[in-house]
Amino acid sequence: MAIAIVGAFVFAWLGFLVAGHVATPYIPMISPTPVISGYIGFYSGIIAMGIIPLVLLIFLLFKVAWGYKVRKGVRRAIFGIWVVTFTSFAATVFFTSRNFAGSYTESQVLSETDWDTNRELRFQFDPTWNDKKSDNHFILDLDHAFMANGKAYVRDVGLEIIPTESDQLKIVQTIQSAGPSKSSARRNMKYLDHNFSLNDQDIKIADYYTLEKNQKFRNQKIRYMVHVPVGTVINFDATSSMLRRNLSYDDRRHMNTKKWAMTRDGLKAIPSEEELAEDLH
């Protein structure tokens, strides 16, 4: 009986390992190296924290209902499996958390140019997070990331558009990352790939970044702070969550508005004639 139980748990563990490799490609990106340790540890946690307690509960119900008594060899086998799986899970959690213990932040001024407020500043969110998701037919979707075509697409790009009394358009980029140490966090910062470009009066920015499958997710984040001179008209070619974060609660009803004016109090919508007509109705 004890041998049968051990064998059943071993096959269940191998099943989790194989299924997890196919179903959850995120684990290699957050686990400590080597990658296999991530699968072993996290799926051992399912056995230790879920399956074994369930088996013990079933044994307890059998004992209460029919007086069934679990043999000593069976109890030892289950306890041994629990020790091994729980230790594996705890070790994985510990070493994974260590990979996020250090942090590094780097800021740089990407552009600082004289600006004529009579010119229109154009933002292009291209491609957007939702567009990229719709382009991929098979994806594993989480709250702020999805996996497709061997890459992870992470929606952790921030954009802050703030007014300035200066006559200069200034763009500051800040990148954050984690790692076991400050030096490794700095190295992990270079793994992400993000599309951003500034061409004359056009700013093109993607609201996500990508990581290759063999690269590690270490809480990388990108933030852009764009200082726009007061009086500038800004044109947004598409709706994005990055735009929403720059609007007051009242102004969010104008999310589909293309043109906005930069005032001392922030962005204010410039409704089109069609939008004004709809408001009248």
Tell me what the structure shows:
With 281 residues, this protein is an alpha+beta fold. The chain has helices at residues 2-23, 27-30, 35-66, 72-98, 129-135, 182-188, 241-244, 273-280; strands at residues 102-114, 120-125, 140-141, 145-148, 151-154, 157-164, 168-179, 196-199, 202-205, 209-212, 221-229, 233-236, 259-263, 266-269. The strands form three sheets. Strands 8-9-2-12-13-14 form a six-stranded mixed sheet, with no helix packed on it. It has a four-stranded mixed sheet with strand order 1-7-11-6. α1 packs across α3, α1 (2-23) packs parallel to α4 and α3 packs antiparallel against α4 (72-98). The longest helix is centred in the N-terminal third of the chain and has 32 residues, at 35-66. The chain is elongated. The N and C termini lie far apart (76 Å).
| Count of helical stretches | 8
Radius of gyration equals: 27 Å
The beta-strand count equals 14
Give the helices and strands as they follow along the chain: HHHHEEHEEEEEHEEEEEHEEH
The helical percent reads 25-40%
Provide the residue-averaged pLDDT: 79
Structural class: alpha+beta
What's the main sheet like?
A: 6 strands, mixed
| Distance between the amino and carboxyl termini | 76 Å
How would you write the strand order of the largest sheet? 8-9-2-12-13-14
Query: What shape does the CA trace take?
Result: elongated
Low-pLDDT runs: none
- Share in β-strands: 25-35%
Overview in brief:
By secondary structure, this protein is an alpha+beta fold.
List keywords for this structure.
281 residues, alpha+beta, six-stranded mixed beta sheet, 8 helices, 14 strands, 40% helix
